[in-house]
Amino acid sequence: MKQWSLDRRAFLKAAGVLGAGLAMKPDFAWSAAGDTLRIRMEGDLQCLDPAFMNGGIEDVMMRGIYVSLNHFGDIRKGSPWSLWGAEKLEQKDPKTIAFTLIDGLKWSGGFGAVTADDVKFSFERIADKALASPWAYQFEKLDRVEVADARNGIIHLKEPYQPIFVTSLPYYGGHIISRAGTEKAGGKFTTQPPATCGPYLFSDWQQKQKVTLTANPDWPGPKPDFSKVEIYVVSDDQAAQLAYEADAFDYTKIAISATKAVKEKPPADTILIEAQSTRYVWLTVNQLSPRLKDLKVRQAVQYGVDVGQILTGVYDDLTKRSTGVVQPGTKFARASNLIAAPDYEKSAALLKEAGVSDLSLTLTVMNDSIRTATAQIIQASLEQAGIKVEIQPYDEAAFWGVGDKTQGDGYKNIDLALMDFAGGIDPSENLVWFRPDQIGAYNWSGFDSAEFETSYQQLVAESDEAKRIALSNRMEDLMEQSGGFVFICHQPLVAIHKTAFDPVIYPDGHPNPVLFKKKA
């Protein structure tokens, strides 16, 4: 079969120029005066209800406008957790955790003090199956929250849940919301929270451009170093770098392909961050698709993707191929992949065995330059195996709707999808999305394994490290054996920021502006 090569710069050039043009619109603010921190995120605001948020900018905003019992330190320091909204958080036994809220927490909107009853409402609401929150797994082991008094409560679990301090309490489901405010709003809300209680207030939103947070005068905890945070929406990394260099903002992720150039010639007053991120990238092969129901056809796709070309063409060989969704370099990472690819002859033979010829598939992808470049390499690679691929690009909001079963049966007709998720510290946080109950939500491969589900339940309850490693490795074996996954890589985190402050970055790779510290 013929050989091929790809010019990464040719892939990225057009998208970068287009993105830069969008960033340079007349209404784009190029500077901010005074005590303001300006950071950039990729996607726009969609929902600030912790039960239904999508991540990204919402995650960053909620760290400012809500409070959780604990929170994380910087990813480069191992992401240690520490107390935040709680002055005490103590595990009494494997199924009981006592907490005491810090004194003086107050809701906006005249809803009074933040209480242990609000904690009860927030956690039990997320766990309620009737609400159908995609984050319900974070509290699926919750039995109830017992309210002792205004500031004290006890979290009762049905059974031990080892990762609760790093997957539930400091993350999406752990954000505390107002019972009275939410009930007054009808039980749900989207972009207008009825009440907030964090270090910042949600001040302004200019759709697809900027969100502004201002310091909350009623916040009783440590005051943030910046009185205002402006979060700019720029989808493309290259465009964001150009905007940063023009003093549009103070912190941004940049394209991984730009790392070497920035190292050699960094912008003035700039620090480059390189860190191992938990964000994992993979190709979903949807076994619910009529074209991919045969395991041999799915395996043909697995053998037909040249991951090495992606690592070179998109990531400049700054990262290695992942053996699964669990972060490399940790004790839980699998030793190797089961399928050595590419093997175009094997791919073609599998298609022949399945009686399939002239296979044509669609590849669903977000339309930024990095993902588009990756999709084009996948397209060219699969062509060598005799599989035609049509790339279907979407902006971020539309992309997530494609696999949402609440929007209809379209999720069953996805063929291939290029996906990347922000992972966590515990392996269960990365594996949870591929459980059967996530089909039609975030499990776009239609992967439905009873053994996987049983193993997951054992993983979150087990305290013995060796047994947890064996369980997580077996779960990734099951994923690959299903034909539903091509593991690509864990993206390195590459960001730039002004020298005047030190950022704090969560395990998911997103910044926590509340904890950014000015240098003396």
UniProtKB/TrEMBL annotation:
Principal place of residence: periplasm
Localization per Swiss-Prot or TrEMBL: Periplasm
Family matches, as Gene3D superfamilies: Dipeptide-binding Protein, Domain 1, Dipeptide-binding Protein, Domain 3, Periplasmic binding protein-like II
GO process annotations (BP): peptide transport
MF terms in GO: peptide transmembrane transporter activity
Solute-binding protein family domain boundaries: 86-428
InterPro entries, alphabetized: Peptide/Ni-bd, SBP_5, SBP_5_dom, TAT_signal, TAT_signal_bac_arc
GO CC annotations on file: ATP-binding cassette (ABC) transporter complex; outer membrane-bounded periplasmic space
Keywords, alphabetical: Signal, Transport
Name of the protein: Twin-arginine translocation signal domain-containing protein
Organism for this UniProt entry: Mesorhizobium erdmanii
